[in-house]
Amino acid sequence: MPDKTSLSSLNNRIIRCRRCPRLVTHCKRTAKEKTARYQHLPYWGKPVPNLIPDTKHHAGSARLLIVGLAPGAHGANRTGRMFTGDKSGDFLFDAMHKAGLCTQPTSTANGDGLALIDTVITSAAHCAPPGNRPVADELDNCAGFLDQTFEAMPNLRTVLSLGQIAHRSVLKRYHRLGLIDRLNRYPFAHAAEYPLEHAPRLLCCYHPSQQNTFTGRLTPDMLRRVLIKAREYAHQDG
Fold first, then answer.
1. Mean pLDDT lowest for which of 2-16, 202-216, 218-232?
2. Which of 134, 162, 193, 231 has the fewest CB atoms within 10 Å, i.e. is most exposed?
3. Which own/partner contact pairs does 76-79 have at CB distance under 8 Å and 24+ positions apart?
């Protein structure tokens, strides 16, 4: 039975990374200056590691990988856990809980009891970027961590990309490995899916950013349906 040793080791490397000076500076500055409602709380202020299942839920055997964009400045950059402590995370984890992919519908802080089920959450960039937009060089610097996340999941069957940047990051990995010939053959669209012969099936979903959820572009039901489909595909072969 695979365990989480390799994913845990990868997380340690992610946390120690200092490859992008702009992002390192931004994370530290945000952690020092804070935002008004969190002035009384400590901030993580470093690269945010992958969110992996605990020992009980066997991280190394997870079949589903969810890929986001980057940590939120006052969410994951504050709590040190992917999608934790902001509105995007509230939206995502409520839908994941309803889809049977995590143990509770809320995620407020590291150690609050939430655990993923058969799922790992990563991101295209592991540091909170200014304006929520990592630049190309920063995404390239994090591409190795995405590669290593895939490699540490031997039972991976399905990948769900949240947003166009995450989708492109996954496609670039597939292209680096020669699994696809052209990125533009797999355009991003909500609920699009691409069954690939030599790579995990790829599904797309709008990112649960406030820009999408507050405007109704992404509704709870839309997200839940995509997550249920991702879970079903992840278990088709076993």
1. 2-16
2. 193
3. 76/44, 76/48, 76/128, 77/27, 77/30, 77/31, 77/43, 77/44, 77/45, 77/48, 77/127, 77/128, 78/31, 78/34, 78/38, 78/41, 78/43, 78/44, 79/44, 79/108, 79/109, 79/110
Which domain CATH number covers 192? 3.40.470.10
| Phi (first) and psi of residue 67, to 5 degrees | -115, 120
Q: How far is CA 219 from CA 103, 208, 215, in A?
A: 21, 9, 9
| Mean pLDDT value of segment 15-35 | 97
Q: How far apart are the first and last CA of the chain?
A: 15
* CA 71 – CA 14 distance, rounded (Å): 13
Domain carrying residue 145: 5-234
- Reduced to 3 states, what is the DSSP secondary structure of residue 186? coil
Alpha-carbon distance of 141 to 20, in angstroms, equals 8
Q: Are strands 201-205 and 193-194 parallel, antiparallel or unpaired?
A: antiparallel
pTM of the predicted structure, to 2 decimals:
0.95
Q: If you write DSSP's letter for every residue of 87-104 in order, what string do you get?
A: HHHHHHHHHHHHTTSBS-
CA–CA dist 29, 227 (Å, integer): 35
The CA distance from 108 to 114, in Å, is 9
Total number of domains in the chain: 1
d(CA 86, CA 189) in angstroms, rounded, equals 25
How many helices (H) and strands (E) would you count in the chain? Answer: 8, 5
Q: Which amino acid is at 206?
A: Y
Residue 16 CB neighbours (<10 A): 9
